[in-house]
Amino acid sequence: MAEKLYYIDSYIKDFVAVVKSCVYDGERWCVELDKTAFFPEGGGQAADSGYIGNVRVFDVQEKDRKILHYTESEIAEGEYSCSIDWEQRFRRMQNHSGEHIVSGLINKRFGYDNVGFHLAEDYVTLDFNGELTAEDIADIEFAANKAVWENVRIYAVFPEPEMLDSINYRSKLELTEDVRIVTVEGYDVCACCAPHVRRTGEIGIIKIIDHMKHRGGVRLTMLCGSDAYKDYARKQESAAEISALLSAKRDDIATAVKKFYNDLQNEKYQTAELKKSILKAESEKLTAIDGNYCFFYPAAFDINSLRTLVNEAMKLCSGVAAAFSGSDETGYNYVMGSANIDLRAKSKEINAAISGRGGGSPEMIQGSAKAVRATLEDYFKN
């Protein structure tokens, strides 16, 4: 197997290695090196990417005790300068080291095990086999950042098999050989194959941005380091925009939003009452006719409002009571009712005439129409 430089020093960005073989597996080129700093996918963390010479490495996997580098083109055997995507690697190191701190704290305080970990491109999820309250999570987050401020050491060792039984460490699997133990001094001891930062201060910040119940336990969504910084910057931009729109200080935008929401709900209630009054007045003016009724209203009149009027109008006409809301520019929603005509059977003909789509029961149909008002009025007049 290739020498694993990422075990020796997780900060190796560039190195020189010999291409031992390069074969095509029917889909991509598979390259073996005599040594590598490329971390292969494992432990919930994606593989590194980078270059062997000037050829792009887009995936790395460990299979049958071989580390395979998947490349975009063939590489001849020989010695090459190699480089990994350091920005990508370092953000993963920050997040993975932060995960160890949070998982270690939860394990010590509550006895819960980390039963799931996924380091995505823009977030991290951690699954635990026990429930936590919002207050618990806030306490854990503060303690985790305290570990960052203390800037303690993070280091990895390969204990001899006979020593493993004497080490109290976290692990998702029963391990017996080639066990790599990563220690965050004072906070966590865990079996792990991934690269980590040297000291907790390099993590920068640990922020738990969400939590939810998951399979009898809890799932935390977390950001660390540069990911947490970028998330904070985005949220500050949003807060500034909301602050300007509501003419409120940034620290007061939650209160301002609640007031805006309550005002909006009151406006909606008043609008609904006004629509009811309008439709009631319209209904009271209706008289029995031999033919069709056709009504038009602004888009604010929803389907339920239209249906209320149609229910009354269809009792007083021999044909169809049709109510539309919308405009020629945006199109119309419609409700049609009849006590004498089977509208379900007639719906195909009606929709064809008004460039519409919709259906329903023999007594009432609803849908949308693209035809302009003049066309709609002409159809129901004739």
Helix and strand arrangement:
Elements: E1 3-4, H1 5-8, E2 14-24, E3 29-33, E4 35-36, E5 50-52, E6 55-63, E7 66-71, E8 78-84, H2 86-110, E9 114-119, E10 124-128, H3 134-150, E11 154-157, E12 181-184, E13 188-191, E14 206-214, E15 217-224, H4 225-246, H5 253-285, E16 293-297, H6 303-313, E17 321-327, E18 331-337, H7 343-353, E19 356-360, E20 364-369, H8 373-381
Parallel strand pairs: 1-4, 16-17
Antiparallel strand pairs: 2-3, 2-8, 3-7, 5-6, 5-8, 6-7, 9-10, 10-15, 11-12, 12-13, 14-15, 17-18, 18-20, 19-20
Helix pairs in contact: 2-3, 4-5, 5-6
Can you describe this structure?
This protein folds into 4 domains: 82 residues, Beta Barrel (Elongation Factor Tu (Ef-tu), domain 3), CATH 2.40.30.130; 145 residues, Threonyl-tRNA Synthetase, Chain A, domain 2; 28 residues; 96 residues, Diaminopimelate Epimerase, Chain A, domain 1, CATH 3.10.310.40. The longest helix has 33 residues. A hairpin with a 3-residue loop joins β19 and β20. α4 packs across α5. 29% of the residues are buried. It is 35% helix and 30% strand. The protein is elongated. It has 382 residues and is α+β, with helices and mostly antiparallel strands. The protein has a 6-stranded antiparallel beta barrel.
What's this entry about, in short?
This protein folds into four domains: 3-84, Elongation Factor Tu (Ef-tu), domain 3 (Beta Barrel); 89-233, Threonyl-tRNA Synthetase, Chain A, domain 2; 248-275; 286-381, Diaminopimelate Epimerase, Chain A, domain 1 (Roll). The chain has eight helices and 20 strands.
